[in-house]
Amino acid sequence: MIFSRDYIGYLARRTVKHLIDAKMITSTNVKVVEARVNGALVEELSLEDRINEEVRVILEAYSEEMRKSGAQYAEMFKKVKTELAKKYKAVL
After folding, report:
1. Residue 15 domain boundaries
2. Phi and psi (nearest 5°) for 72?
3. Do 10 and 41 reside in the same domain of the chain?
4. Alpha-carbon span 70 to 88, nearest angstrom
5. What is the pLDDT of residues 28-57, one digit of tens each?
6. 4 three-class SS
7. Is 41 found in the same domain as 17?
8. In the predicted model, is pLDDT for residue 92 greater than 90?
9. In 1-92, where does DSSP find H-type helix?
10. I need a labelling partner for 51 at 20 to 30 A (CA). Which of 24, 28, 65, 85 fits?
11. Which residues 6+ apart lie within 8 Å of 2 measured at CB?
């Protein structure tokens, strides 16, 4: 993940505070809202990590064919990652 969990928690708290101050949301339990926003941010930001892991699994399955054909791992990683990002409708 590109951000630390502490920083994501900070972003969640600031986001909730901003939304409440702007009167865009109201809440009697701010901590619950912060926890939900934090969870959503972690989930979204960890998507790239999950895609990278899936790419590694796919390329491992085809490693012998890639070796025989002389395909470059970095090139194939990028291509497979791009396709998976399209599949999951992710913006990376």
Report:
1. 5-45
2. -85, 130
3. yes
4. 29
5. 999 999 999 999 999 988 999 999 999 999
6. coil
7. yes
8. no
9. 5-21, 30-45, 47-61, 63-69, 73-87
10. 65
11. 45, 48
Q: In which residue are the tokens 């951000």 written? A: 3
Please name the residue that has the structure tokens 């990002």: 85
C-alpha 49/C-alpha 47 separation (Å) is: 5
Structure tokens at 64: 């012998």
Give the closest residue to 51 by CA, choosing from 24, 86, 75, 16. 86
List pLDDT tens digits, range 62-71: 999 999 999 9
The residue to which tokens 């109201």 are assigned:
26
Tokens 């194939």, located at residue: 76
Q: Do residue 51 and residue 22 come from a single domain?
A: no
Which pair of structure tokens corresponds to residue 18?
Answer: 């901003």
> Which residue do the tokens 């993940």 mark?
1
Res 13 pLDDT > 90: yes
Which residues contact residue 11 at a Cβ distance below 8 angstroms, ignoring those fewer than 6 apart?
Answer: 3, 41
Sequence-ordered list of residues with C-beta below 8 angstroms from that of 62, at least 6 positions apart, any chain: 76
